Amino acid sequence: SVASVAHYQRAIKAFSRWAWRDGRSVDDCLAGLRIRGADTDPQVVRRAPTEAELVALIHAAERGPVHHGLTGHERAQAYRLASGTGLRVSELKSLTPESFDLSSTPATVTVAAAYSKRRRTDTQPLSSALVAVLSPWLASKAPGEPVLRLPGRRSAEMLRADLAAAGVPYTTSAGRFDFHAQRHGFISELVAGGASVKTCQELARHSTPTLTIGRYAKARLADVAAAVEALPVVGTAAA
User: Fold this and answer.
1) Residue 173 to residue 47: CA distance in whole angstroms
2) Where are the alpha helices (DSSP H) in 22-101?
3) What is the largest CA-CA distance in the chain?
4) How far apart are CA 158 and CA 146, in angstroms?
């Protein structure tokens, strides 16, 4: 993203300046490097899908034909996993039957450090409702083989085809519904459900709560209205 590029530019400029001030280089060769897009918002604005949109998407996928090398059921399971765990496409692609422990309490799915964005082994709890849907499907998968053969960068095309079949718009005034938007939806549902900031940060696997709440959690009008409705009306209480 534009913001990530700006962070890298700041880091390399700081290193160059330190090397010069510490006498390790004859000058600060990057002093004139301009940090581009430092104050620019991310170019991709995503929306958190509503429950109705996700249900329509999954049902459309289930009924749909094979495309991008996946049956409708396989695509539906991919969307269920993405929206129910917040895992990224690359993380979903890395999962094998051994990644799941459905007999533990709670049931879990584990992403190996090599595939996790923060480069450490991540274990996510699974809801009982999701486990009920996954169990028979996972039982049919070969040991050691990927449970989802997602088409990598073409996952966006796959999702758009199913969104069109479901009658769900890809883009609205609230933002884009791409594959990663399901991660936004996962985090937004956690926040709306009353989970603490720390819990949301842990489940999102973010380094800071600012990223979790500031960029990923989307407050829907109904949630905001409910919060306002709970406020007392000053001056109406009996003395």
Assistant:
1) 9
2) 51-63, 72-85, 89-93
3) 76
4) 18
